Amino acid sequence: MSTTLLQMRGIVKTFPGVRALDGVDLEVRTGEVHCLLGQNGAGKSTLIKVLAGAQRPDEGTIEWCGDKVSLRGPAAAMKLGIATIYQELDLVDGLSVAENIFLGHEPTTVGFARRTEMRGNARRLLERLGHGEIDPAQEVGELSSASKQLVSMARALSLDARLIVMDEPSAVLAHDEISGLFRVIEELTRQGIAIVYISHRLDEIREIGDRITVLKDGRTVAEDLPAASTATDRVVSLMTGRSMVSAFPERKSGSAPENQNELLRVADLSRTGEFEDISFTVRGGEIVGIAGLVGSGRSEILQTVYGARKPRTGEVELEGKRLPPGNVRAAVRAGMGLAPEERKSQALVPYESIAHNVSLAALGRYARLGWVNRPGEQAAAEEVTTALRLQPSDTKQPVRVLSGGNQQKAVVARWLLTDCRVLLLDEPTRGVDVGAKAEIYALVRELADSGVGVLLVSSEIPEVLGLSDRVLVLREGRIVRESPADEIDEAEVLDLFIEGSAA
Amino acid sequence: MTEQSQTDTVPASESRSATAEAPRTRIARGRFSDGNQRQILGLLAVLGILIAVGSFTTDNFFEVSNLVLLLSQASIIGVLSIGMTFVIISGGIDLSVGAIIALASVWATTGATQEFGLWGMLFTAVVVAGVCGLINGVLIAYGGLVSLIVTIAGLASYRGMATLISGGQPQVVRVDGFGAIATTEFLGIPLLVYMFATTVVLGWLLLNRTTFGRHVFAVGGNAEAARLAGIDVRRTRTIVFVLSGLCCAIAAIMLTARTATGASTHGNLYELDAIAAVILGGTLLSGGRGTLIGSILGVVVFTTVNNIFVLNNLSTPIQQIAKGVIIVIAVLLQRRANKESAG
């Protein structure tokens, strides 16, 4: 379109055990909507953090308007004119719209905020976005997600942003609100502001985007693709890469899960605003995968089956026994285990050792009258972590030293100690590097072969298709398709996702 | 320490198998991580310095009578700090312990209670304090209230009840056996010190050797993870406050016996001394990490400072200032140690 605003070259960022960015190039021009595509774990969020100054790259150069810059911190990025609108909007619910817009840079006289001026300016910024109807005096907590997003954008404008990064802005919006968002984006680009737009929904990208950059495994695999005319096939194959397919273990032919007994039966499960009428079964030795976008209700279903959330209607049966709703302990006792999406915040106890984390759910088995048989516990934890080839092998180490893949192994090890019959896996390979992914896949298949029923949720479609025996496709809280995994392909799943959002 | 000895039983070949990650991960280990050990060593060093100061500045610091006095002075706050350690490791705080002591001591010494003799009084103290802890725990765990708020409310209302029952007057203990609790000695050491030591041992075993103790660490370290692992988080939280209440019962019995009165002014501000000792001992205020030994050392350090100041005839205000300075320095050191072990 016009001049280059931002030029990133060869950006590398490593975290312990993970090479999150491995040579990313990104060029953004003024007044364009630049779409950033990639699967989860491709490095999009790390790249955004680098752009926002929240993470410093290990290697690579960043040029802003032709000058080399280093983004030392969030303040430096803001000063240049880079604003980021995260998915979880970082607004203060208890403050007014105007106070949020000017948070940290309030117009002041000897320390007192000039409130009237602030409200006036806030109104002008909102009008610039075409949403003068939002009252600057209103408390942000009372606003809808769409309005909150507008407040975030107004905040970006108040900081004279010239580049606004939007991380899946449509994920929190209803269909009719998305067209409103697009009008705002068009308005902004007309004023010369560049947008980096991240979304999984290809139809949106066609509608609003100018150019596409595709990331995969921390690298830029394609640049300067025209958003409107690049074929979906090509984008999807760039995003996924076919090399991954080999990472999946072979399904045992002939083991015919149909012959196995039904372990888990879920009937008419519903939770208001999250999912409706979910029914399915999982047999022993079977891996059932749920494919769905962020916000489709996939994790919520898993948590409800597990009893961590209470359903409005429906029931869960394990080996023919009905589980009391909303009771995790009953589910665990009946033989269920969950490896949650957020390992750090939902599964691991940070100050405890690996052994103690592994034995957490099964501690009762290594105790008599509450007295822990510590050698027995230790031996069991070591046996199972050795079997899973967890590194480091010294289980006295605190669990926080583990890399993503090994954290996941520790969580799976926990449920192996309880002899769990049904294992629920929520994003089992998020934050896990490619090598360890294959190991986790093999482990899950091994578990299934030993008779465990596995219910898998993942936002990576190839993972769901490659690992599962049977696939449930979820859209907006409903199962829209159930199919054996080898009778459905990625394009079909993507179609099923997109159909709904285009309507 | 015992954890350490267990490490040695692991075959060296297995635990030291060469892995690419090994160098990076040799930072800290187990519950008795280097950070915790450093903490305890640091406290022992501080105690050593204090003892040196004590022996140089006074003539009678090392006299048996003084050391015995020191230990019996440490006993009451020491017992409280044990319950407090459980509460803080579980991620909570208990500000009501001083008030529970007052209520338990008053209720155990009313005319009516004293009719039932020694055992009736002991039973009353235990039940009253235990129920106060139970009320705290239920409100926090099942009512979903913040422990700070609930126990501030307890701090006010339990002491209020104590004043109401006693009419604001000290109640003299007339049962003979009760006073003996404070005066009995075995082998030259007061019964109070044995009571303290027994509580320490029981508390240590409960925290470090039982499933319940493990659950306390898990709940304080990551309550959501504990819940999703099938641990009854609410029950664990409730029991922790009941334990704190039971420690108050023991402290109330000790204090009532020593003063030979039950009074609604008993235990005033003891909660702050107990919390200070626990923090000084290296227990994280945010929960999930801490040691009972550290808390006990914390109590001993404070009591020794106290003792040295008294022996040197220094005023209480200076003593208070010194206490404040010790707390700040200890927490600063703690932060550094944590940063290092997190690096």
From TrEMBL, chain A:
Subcellular location: Cell membrane
Regions annotated as coiled coil: none
Gene3D superfamilies attached to this UniProt entry: P-loop containing nucleotide triphosphate hydrolases (3.40.50.300)
GO molecular function: ATP binding; ATP hydrolysis activity
Keywords assigned by UniProt, alphabetized: ATP-binding, Cell membrane, Membrane, Nucleotide-binding, Repeat, Translocase, Transport
Chief place of localization: membrane
Domain ABC transporter: 6-242, 258-501
Membrane-topology descriptor: Peripheral membrane protein
CDD domains reported in the protein's UniProt record: ABC_Carb_Monos_I, ABC_Carb_Monos_II
One Gene Ontology term, aspect cellular component: plasma membrane
Designated name of the protein: Monosaccharide ABC transporter ATP-binding protein, CUT2 family (TC 3.A.1.2.-)
From TrEMBL, chain B:
Membrane topology, as annotated: Multi-pass membrane protein
Main location class: membrane
Keyword Aminoacyl-tRNA synthetase among record annotations: no
Name the record gives this protein: Ribose transport system permease protein
Compositionally skewed regions (Polar residues) per UniProt: 1-18
Pfam families the UniProt entry points to: BPD_transp_2
InterPro entries: ABC_transp_permease
GO molecular function (one): transmembrane transporter activity
TM annotation in the entry: 40-58, 64-88, 95-112, 118-139, 146-166, 186-207, 238-257, 292-311
